[in-house]
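Technical note accompanying the year-one report. For the benefit of new consortium partners, we illustrate the data format agreed upon in the data management plan: each record pairs a sequence with a structure-token string. No post-processing was applied to the example shown here.
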Amino acid sequence: MRQDFARQAVVRPFALLVRNPSVLAVAVAVLAFSSLVPDQGIATDVFRRGWLFDEAPAEAWSLIRSPAFLVAAVGGFAGKILVSAAASQQLMLVFRDCRTTLLATLRSIRVSAVCWLFGAELALYGLCALAGLLGYVPALLVWRTTGADLTIPLLAVAVLAFPAAYAAVSAAIVAAPLPASARERGSVVASMRERRIFLPLYGLFAVRVILETLLLGVAPLVFLDVVHSKPLATLAVGAGVLVPSLLLRGSCYALMLYALRPVPVVERVFGPYFADSEPVGAR
């Protein structure tokens, strides 16, 4: 029986770490956090009455006009795209039963896949920003006319919508390295319009968001706003990126493949993996 490297990615995450380019995301996250996040006061500002409507726009505009922020944002986005493409390429090879190393994975990345992922993520983030504005502008008008602060409802909607956005971006990352046309890759993301694909992915990423929020959100905020220690918060961010990379990436990728299996290109590329994973009596 052939060795199932994909199963190793799920049950032996530390063995996968030494050849997983996604661990580079730890360095990217730590550097971005250290350079962009203030020493304290994130949570207390957001929940101060009216801050989201009176002060946040001016602060955001001031940040956007900063050359340092623009360089960091562009560099961070480019680094994120490269890390995502490399990690997805590596997992695709693993789940197709191909032996691979970190260096071999980086060499096998195609420029077309990186460019497609860049465009796909940019489009998805643009749609998310547009949806956010469509919710923010009416809430701003309500604040200016009636004084009602809708920060909590806006945050609640954002929390509910975030797993869907996360799943869509992850589907694009899965699709990027596939040996397929741009149209076929796009069909992977577009398939989320189907309920049978959307609901499992939404549930999967809702659970993942909860776990990652506890690691990547709550702990750093506690260190910033309660302990007032940015070094400890930075270490928490690094751990919050590393732990999901170790424990969730392989299993999450496998579950995504099964949710996306109705998409023809996914079935074609990963057909041997699906066949090998089925019980003998079900073949």
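Partners are asked to follow this layout when depositing records. The chain has one domain: 5-273.
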